Amino acid sequence: MADSFDAIVIGGGPGGYNAAIRLGQLGLKAACVDKRGSFGGTCLNIGCIPSKALLHASERFHEAETDFAKLGIKASVQLDLPAMMAQKEKVVGELTKCVEFLFRKNKVEGIVGEAKLIAPGQIAVRGKDGSSRTLTAKHVIIATGSDVSPLPGVTIDEDQIVSSTGALSLKSVPKRMLVVGAGVIGLELGSVWKRLGSEVTVIEFLDRITPGMDLEISKAFQRVLTKQGMSFQLSTKVTGVEKKKTGLSVTVEPAQGGQKSVIETDVMMVCIGRRPCTDNLGLETVGVTLDKRGRVVTDAHYRTNVAGIYAIGDCREGAMLAHKAEDEAVACAELIAGKAGHVNYDAIPSVVYTFPEVATVGKTEEDLKAAGVQYKVGKFPFTANARAKTIMATEGFVKILADAKTDRVLGCHILGAEAGNLMAEVVLAIEFGASSEDIARTCHSHPTLTEAVRQAAMAVEGWTMQM
Ligand SMILES: Cc1cc2nc3c(=O)[nH]c(=O)nc-3n(C[C@H](O)[C@H](O)[C@H](O)COP(=O)(O)OP(=O)(O)OC[C@H]3O[C@@H](n4cnc5c(N)ncnc54)[C@H](O)[C@@H]3O)c2cc1C
Q1: Atom 6 in ligand 1: which residue has the minimum CA distance?
Q2: Residue 275 β-bridge partners
């Protein structure tokens, strides 16, 4: 006999588990199925959380090695990589268990197994032990997330040729690491291993790093990373890899073709993007439409073309970010429960957790130029911020873009320490339709890095007071 629910969520990542929790809160009988064996999806198991644990630990290691002496602290520093990895695993274990607790609290049934749609509203679940179960529900949310995009002709062995997953668990610090792809994940994990002692070279097909980011910020970011010792080969592609007894020979050539050259390395990390997980889900059986990139097509209410089937998170269009998936989860669950769920896609921040961090929200200058929007720019460098000086974090600047006529904040881009946290107030400003003057006239604590955001807002109207 089939187990019946009001709603079943396929996938237990930030999209899936938050949707199931919100459905439970709203009084619906909900289940969340994930095949991984622990809930939390890519984010908690092999993404945001383990990468941030290693970024934090490696940043402290690097700081202790290089900056402590400047602060008058003498320390002899040694790396204990197994302990660093164990701390990361501990955090992952605690947070994935937390999802199970939240399921129990909100009466969500968490089911471990691979789900497949066999008809609209009907799902077959195969357990790891070969057991099977059929579930039925009026509403089904697809939240199956994304997976690493492969590099044609290159086989990932998660040892010498790794994806982000393998790069989170290397057993030793490679002498040389080649990062293929200068996007967020490649630069974050490249930074981890650089700080721990690897020589890191980044290969990027495009003529710039972090595609889509405000170009001025992106260029400044590359300069900072180069100063830290990372090297970049832009407009370059990898065309082959040969495994040697002691390392790899990687063949590269200009993106548009031309003279080949060989780079010797110990580990190659492939980070050329992620693709939606929409295979083997039975979507073709029930007739759900996918786009050219394999993403589930939905309307603004996350409904697919098949009644009762919805999609959220990385498996549909939009930025592949945990908090975007989470916001869509809440909106989708509320819409299913008859409420007015909504996501403001102009107010979804994005952060690169390197040091310094990069945070962005809203429109870039390039977006505004392309759309013909008249805008004003306000900038403020961290070299002129008192707190930044005291913590020796003066690199970078805040850039605010506001509508030339209405002064409404349209975008903000920050390169600097704590950029991710600093951005929260600008996201709120955009959400509330605030003007740059609203930020400029809001009191900010002294001495904090947040004052740089305020000063950048003042600079929009030309009255920065600290420069
Ligand atoms: C190294 C790395 C670092 C990242 N850092 C950040 C960051 O700092 N901030 C940020 O916002 N984002 C980050 N991301 C991206 C973030 O992890 C994703 O955007 C987010 O996890 C997407 O959530 P989701 O719920 O859509 O999918 P996922 O988290 O991918 O979860 C989908 C789940 O569905 C399950 N599943 C798939 N098919 C089936 C099936 N047939 N049956 C049952 N279960 C199934 C999978 O096992 C998986 O657990 C990072 C990603 C990586 C790889």
Answers
A1: 48
A2: 147
